[in-house]
Amino acid sequence: MRDLKWTPAEKAIARKAFDLALGRELDALIREAKDRARRIEQPPELWELERYLTQRRKDIDRLYDYRYSMLPLIFGNLLRQGRLAEHDLRGLAEDKLAHIRSYVRL
Amino acid sequence: MRDLKWTPAEKAIARKAFDLALGRELDALIREAKDRARRIEQPPELWELERYLTQRRKDIDRLYDYRYSMLPLIFGNLLRQGRLAEHDLRGLAEDKLAHIRSYVRL
Q1: How many DSSP H helices and E strands does chain A contain?
Q2: Looking at this predicted complex, what is its ipTM?
Q3: DSSP three-state, residue A3
Q4: Average pLDDT value for chain B
Q5: How far apart, in whole angstroms, are the C-alpha atoms of residue A59 and residue A57?
Q6: Torsion angle of the four alpha carbons A36, A41, A43, A44, in this order, in degrees rounded to the nearest 10
Q7: Residue of A50, A55, A56, A60 to mutate for B, most B C-beta atoms under 10 A
Q8: In sequence order, which residues have a C-beta less than 8 Å from that of residue B62 and are 6 or more positions away?
Q9: With contacts defined as CB-CB under 8 Å, which chain B residues touch A26?
Q10: Is a pLDDT exceeding 90 seen at residue A4?
Q11: Which helix (H) or strand (E) holds A48?
């Protein structure tokens, strides 16, 4: 996977798709956090919100690791989770798409 | 301070005042957290809320340390911050009140 060569055009497509997915992930998280905060009535729920945010931050940091060697795995995960659609990756060459699809199936 | 003798009646008063102050602190924090969450628009503000909750949890854990040897200092702090009023401590003997007042003045 380290041998895949990303052209400048593919790098631009990858960056845009990555940022799109991350933006969607964060938008959804903000909505969820607001919703959880609104429903808080007792102190334990407040600390539950804190733990939830810490965990989500760590998950997102781990998942969104922008290295070219990691992108096929990341995009595979995002397609599987529905955070990206195939058309968001249109323009990538078949060698990258083949790797990405292999991760979608995992 | 370790030599102060707390009667059962004083212990009940102390516990009630302590729980009252802690309850007020947590109620205020819940209101503040809801307000901050409602105003979030961008991801950095979400992580700021997480850091804020972590910090406040640690501050509260440190401040509300229910040991008899610590109570005069704690009550002194709470009176100074306005989280307790003198009448919340009515019934404590003069030896404890003298210690507490010495911390209010610090």
Answers
A1: 4, 0
A2: 0.86
A3: coil
A4: 95
A5: 6
A6: -60
A7: A50
A8: none
A9: 43, 46
A10: no
A11: helix A43-63
Task: List helix spans (H) across chain B.
Answer: 8-39, 43-63, 71-80, 94-104
At A35, list the tokens: 């919703």
Q: What is the mean pLDDT of residues A4-22?
A: 96
Measure the CA angle with vertex B23, ends A49 and A52; round to 5°. Answer: 5
The token duo for B64 is 């509300």
* Residue A4 and residue A95 in contact, taking contact as beta carbons nearer than 8 Å: yes
| CA separation for the pair A94, A4 (Å, rounded) | 11
Binned at pLDDT 50, 70 and 90, residue B17 comes out as very high
Distance, in Å, from the CA atom of A73 to the CA atom of A100, rounded to the nearest integer, reads: 6
User: For an interface test with A, which of B19, B45, B46, B59 has the most A Cβ atoms less than 10 Å from its Cβ?
Assistant: B46
What would the two tokens of residue A21 be?
A: 């997915």
